[in-house]
Amino acid sequence: MRQAGAVTRPPTAEHTGGPVRAPSAPAAGRVTSPAPVPLPAGSGDDEAAVRTTGLTKRFRSGQVAVDHVDLLVPRGAVYGFLGPNGSGKTTTIRMLLGLVRPTSGEVQVLGARMPEDADRVLPHVGALVEGPGFQPYLSARANLARIDAADRTVDPRTSRARAEAALERVGLSAAADKRFRQYSLGMKQRLGLAAALLRPRSLLVLDEPTNGLDPQGTREVRTLIRELAADGTTVLVSSHLLAEIEQVCTHIGIMSRGHLVRQGARAEIADPSEARVVVTTPTAQAPAASAVLSGLGLTVQRTTDTGVEALLGDVPPAQVTAALVGAGVDVEGLAVRTPSLEQVFVELTGEGFDVAR
Ligand SMILES: Nc1ncnc2c1ncn2[C@@H]1O[C@H](COP(=O)(O)OP(=O)(O)OP(=O)(O)O)[C@@H](O)[C@H]1O
Predict the structure, then answer these.
(1) Cβ of 131 below 6 Å from ligand 1
(2) Centre of ligand 1 from the C-alpha of residue 11, in Å
(3) Position 29 pLDDT exceeds 60
């Protein structure tokens, strides 16, 4: 795990982009302090926290991992960056952070150019990106202290308070003295998050933050993302597991085979006007329920032994319930389902079990 703006990372042969260095901008001394000083005037884009134009990465192998991607992450958004394994999410994120140099195209983060302005931008960006970054023989607490010490812009006197607050925020206080190498994958993910949260950030970039977490941990990450967004932090969060993050996203971008195949506000991507109502009834009553729904003008899509599914259209769900009850149908359950983003996702990416490439 690696934290932009928090740790040093030597570029590899492929990763010859701007280095991720210790931050150089001044920062607030306590975790609870206001966000870091804004980027200097003239940093441009007021609307987008991240904007890429024609972003492309061709690896030496010849593979085009990212192909002319125009990403737009509005400020204040929780942007779910989705796509199957190998679709190019991590490579894109690495380019945003200056860890991989694009073959072509442009990247703007918080209104500044990357990787050229990395020194100025990265202190405002917290990142959780897979890879080594922690010392295996140090405890979680000591690892955070080490990362914090590498940040020349924060007050060393408040280092401990920052580390403790970050550990608590990710639920690691009780395990803080355990060595990193004894940590489970989920605990490592949490520590990566803690490192990204050592200081206030304008933008958080989280690459598969729920990887390795149990359902409870996944829920906690979602809650954390919601809290951070409520504080005004823009969050870009990638995942190949749609269901894990779709609930927290205000915006969605879907990657498939290196292309950004869909992007926009959550509501635009899965159209709520296609909401369906699913009525559960005792076996013999499904046809009667179906007739009631048709009578209300709903388009029935499916009738099974145990119920009916129909497109809701503009009809309020309460009217559906009342009509069913009025017609003497025993309603065992009634649920409204907006078209799952999953359907859109599968349609666009053709995702099956196999990795596309
Ligand atoms: N350093 C590299 N050299 C060559 N090919 C690479 C390199 N890094 C990634 N790739 C290839 O680029 C493609 C995109 O990989 P990337 O890691 O960006 O996908 P991803 O969407 O993040 O996948 P996952 O969900 O599995 O993390 C893959 O086919 C991968 O094999």
Answers:
(1) no
(2) 17
(3) no
Selected from 3.30.70.240, 2.40.340.10, 3.20.20.140, 1.10.287.70, the CATH number assigned to the domain covering 272-339 reads: 3.30.70.240
Here the tokens at position 177 are 């003295």
Residue 171 tokens read as: 């639920």
pTM: 0.73
Q: What is the mean pLDDT of the chain?
A: 82
How many C-beta atoms surround the C-beta of residue 166 within 10 A? Answer: 26
CATH class name, domain 48-266: alpha beta
Q: How far is the CA of 28 from the centre of ligand 1 (A)?
A: 36
| Cβ atoms of residues 269 and 332 within 8 Å | no
Q: What is the DSSP letter of 180?
A: G
How remote is the C-alpha of 117 from its chain's centroid?
24
Asked if residue 65 has its Cβ within 6 Å of ligand 1, the reply is yes
> Average pLDDT, stretch 193-199?
90
- DSSP 3-state assignment of 65? strand
Q: Is 16 in the pocket of ligand 1 (CB under 6 A)?
A: no
Pocket of ligand 1 contains residue 63 by CB under 6 Å:
yes
Q: Rounded to an integer, what distance in angstroms lies between the CA atom of residue 257 and that of residue 210?
A: 22
Cβ(253) – ligand 1 distance below 6 Å: no
Number of H helices, E strands in the chain: 11, 15
How many residues are given for the chain? Answer: 357
| Domain residue limits, the chain | 48-266, 272-339
Q: Is the dihedral of CA 128, 130, 133, 134 positive or negative?
A: positive
Are the CB atoms for 36 and 208 separated by under 8 Å? no
pLDDT of residue 321: 93
Q: Is the pLDDT of residue 60 over 90?
A: yes
The finding on whether 50 has its CB within 6 A of some atom of ligand 1 is no
What is the Cα–Cα distance from 128 to 9, expressed in whole angstroms?
Answer: 13
Nearest residue (CA) to ligand 1, atom 16: 88
